[in-house]
């Protein structure tokens, strides 16, 4: 028996801020005190609050320690584990709390969240099937095995679950298509090829609760009449793959995978396929081609995968988060409970990766229908450095930006589509006044253009032409007709591209033009980028009134383009400046200004 | 790296190794991507003689094998450096200034993205998203993430790797 459980976040975010070293230091300290057998250390799933990582949560005491460093471990062991006192200085502190917050229930980041999909993440050891079972795991599978397959489809339909991969198709309906497709051999595919830059929801679910995915796939298999499944996972997620392999082995040992599962006569096996780095493989028909060992290029639908899928057999393809919801729905009383959260057309919760210039970055799960304002300001704690909120990009390169005036927009499938964005897989990247919207559109389009598979002309050629225009605008060569040309190209691509990648990739351009037309016009007509991003379209100048001559900028400038004596106002030598931005990051007086090219120091902007 | 230098390296490829990788998958053409992944794990890239061998043993036309190989970003046809730098090009990193980080690395190493330094010390690559957006902008060198970067921190970090 252990006295306490120490859950150390072992997800990629915290690992990269050093949670492995923390764990090592903690072990060493426990060893030194000779008490390591009393405590259980678990490299667990993600509690979501990446911003304050690395994190350790101690149970049963319910204490949340964050922003830990290896040197804190001695005190943590001595004061908390041995002395029984909370180490106050390691608790969460922030402008949104009056006193240091002890646990989830007193940290504002968690107030509006609701954990369905992330129910086990950070609570259980993701490498232990027993802990998953203790939390009610595989109970829904047992129930599903006693139900008629179509009755399972109906329950998922009644719950109102829509696909979490982006398009939002009702999952139960999809299942019933595969169920009704003729033929004895059918497949379930879990799409874990999460490729949107800025999105890491699926990875955290796979890393934090891999058995939930297996259970979801098993239930889907039962409902669709399939006996084999594939998990198609990005090769860039090695930890997720390792945890899935462990989970599959454990489930096989327990008789929850394999033949005659729980004595029901139902057989199911799961294979893992590693992706090889192609964004388009997140598109379902491209993904199928990739599983078959081919170039991952999409094909026209129909026939839909429910009729003709992997190796020509009927196949259901579901996203990771969709599958993680299934055990909650199919358990006793799950339908009503699931449907009690969310809006009329969008039920349940959604996991978002909240990133960009927001104070609390991390992984959040919120009820559908929450507003953008609530996510960014209540959960996200507002904008970094108290700057001004400008827009949020929802749905990655397939989505669109939502500007400040739509801050009360509820987040659900239909409202987002109406605003020109999409739910997408769930990336939310927050932007402030230092983000240039033309550059942003350019960034997304250059991503999709690179990832375009080249099969259909609108996407292959159209994105290239659009990108050329955007490049020109950001380089100061834009002409007034450009906006109309972009708009017309964008609509042609949307209407005629073969797959989801092509049909959605103009969205970032269309929404930035729709909501930030003035910024495009300023780039084109006045050759000015007020956010200080498009290099030929601005210059840095030092505010002569406020510069105190601290020389911080002089020291950091890599090309010696700032001159001035100590304690005298400095000046930027425009001919030498490469606009690398090092100085503006360093200046504590906030006196480096972004001005129009050629403007004089005292004019400013 | 020049084509001649690659050709010279390719002469010493041990095809027995390739054989043992292929063995469990013989006759399963759909497993060609895992095979290529394992070959690349072993050699660090996909040498031409190994590709020819895979094509022959799996009975797949070499042209089609190259078709698959060049489709996926993961596969490399040239040797790579001892240290792989991956600059995250995710959205969060982009708006937090990753282009400035790339620029500085390119300046210091005198290579462009996708290239390897002549001394094989570094290969510079871009990656769509490492997934630690909270630490943006981030680069990974080998398996070590370096987060919350500014251009002036780059040189000291590169100096750690030999």
What's the CATH H-level superfamily name of the largest domain in chain A? NADH-ubiquinone oxidoreductase 51kDa subunit
Overall geometry of chain A comes to globular
Which residues of chain A form runs of ≥5 with pLDDT under 50? none
Structural class of chain A: alpha/beta
Biggest interface, chains and residue tallies: A-B, 58 and 42 residues
Provide an overview of this structure.
The complex is a heterodimer of chains A (605) and B (162). Chain A is of the alpha/beta class and 605 residues long. Chain A is built from 23 helices and 17 strands. Chain A folds into 5 domains: 102 residues, 3-Layer(aba) Sandwich (Glutaredoxin), CATH 3.40.30; 211 residues, NADH-ubiquinone oxidoreductase 51kDa subunit (Rossmann fold); 84 residues, Ubiquitin-like (UB roll); 89 residues, de novo design (two linked rop proteins); 58 residues, Alpha-Beta Plaits, CATH 3.30.70. In chain A, the strands form 5 sheets. In chain A, strands 10-9-13-11-12 form a 5-stranded mixed β-sheet, with helices on both faces. In chain A, strands 2-1-3-4 form a 4-stranded mixed β-sheet, with helices on one face. In chain A, helix 9 packs parallel to helix 11, helix 17 packs antiparallel against helix 18 and helix 18 runs antiparallel to helix 19. The mean pLDDT of chain A is 94. Chain B folds into 2 domains: 69 residues; 77 residues, Glutaredoxin (3-Layer(aba) Sandwich). In chain B, a hairpin with a 2-residue loop joins strand 3 and strand 4. In chain B, helix 3 runs antiparallel to helix 4. Chain B is elongated and about 50 Å long. Chain B starts with a helix and ends with a helix. The chains are: A alpha/beta (605), B alpha+beta (162). Chains A and B meet through helix 1, strand 9, strand 13, helix 17 and helix 23 of A and helix 3, helix 5, helix 6 and helix 7 of B.
Task: Please provide a brief summary of the model.
The complex is a heterodimer of chains A (about 600) and B (about 160). Helices cover about 40% and strands about 15% of the residues of chain A.
